[in-house]
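Predict the holo structure. Ligand: 1,5-di-O-phosphono-alpha-D-ribofuranose.
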Amino acid sequence: MVLSETAESIKKMEIRGAGRIARAAVRALADFARDLDVSDPEAFKREMRGAAETLIATRPTAVSLPNAVRYVMRALDSFESVEAAREAVLARAAEFVKHSEHAIGWIAEIGARHISDGDVLLTHCNSEAALGCILEAHRQGKEIEVYATEVRPRNQGLITIRTLNDAGIRTNYIIDSAVRYFINDVDLVIVGADAIAVNGAVVNKIGTAQIAHAAHEARTNVVVAAETYKFAPRTIFGELIEIEERDPAEVLPPEEAARLPFVRVRNPAFDVTPAEYIDLIITEQGAIPPELAYTVIKDYLGWRIEEFR
Ligand code: RI2
């Protein structure tokens, strides 16, 4: 796939999930570098920068995407030849993908420790990090049951229930608005993240905040499973995380909308859950309370993910 095709697939959500889009972007960047036929180092850098910007512009919220792309682009900070730069880009890209894939396994292992035999879990959307924890608990022989939401308007819940079903996990598929109705039957809410701010607030699929709110009221714990590259370094400087608002046609067919001139369809893809509604964030480096988000940004992202100039 050429870079513009990967970018288009991310935009259209054919490739989706914060971790997956980060890996897809990094792979696209590596392929682009491999095929780039220029001999002038400055031209190489310029072309690479254009490619990086195209990828980053595809979806604004999941910080895994710019974090991953910037990590690879650090290869171009100083280099002696186009060939050296190319090699450095490929090495960093391979390192990111390997780290990202391993991180899911480590998170699953740590997350499973927080799931007890007999637990009823609730998950929202389709997060490979959150599902990894659930699948690992099941693999360890813990008897668990899951409530999975539908996730309007893109119905990522369907992907989740297929995975849970294939693993042989007892699953209840519910509409998004049924969470409050079932929350007292749930022992633990476990979701993923698209971005985590320095104050521990978690940006995840729209609906997560009201689920966390319902869980808080019911004294049900909420756990977030997220790789360290989902933490947003720029929030340290007060920068806000942009919430993507997608095409209204995902919610209401345009023909129907056209008949309702006074109605504006709003389609935010994510919302923000405050740290006070989150009990634990599970990263590949360990489980932390949301209040320690700053430490993750400082200690892990400091060397792993940096800005590119
Ligand atoms: P993993 C997804 O976003 C969901 O919000 C999900 O919770 C989050 O990314 C994290 O997913 P979308 O691409 O990285 O469906 O854990 O909009 O797979």
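The mean pLDDT is 96. DSSP finds eleven helices and ten strands in the chain.
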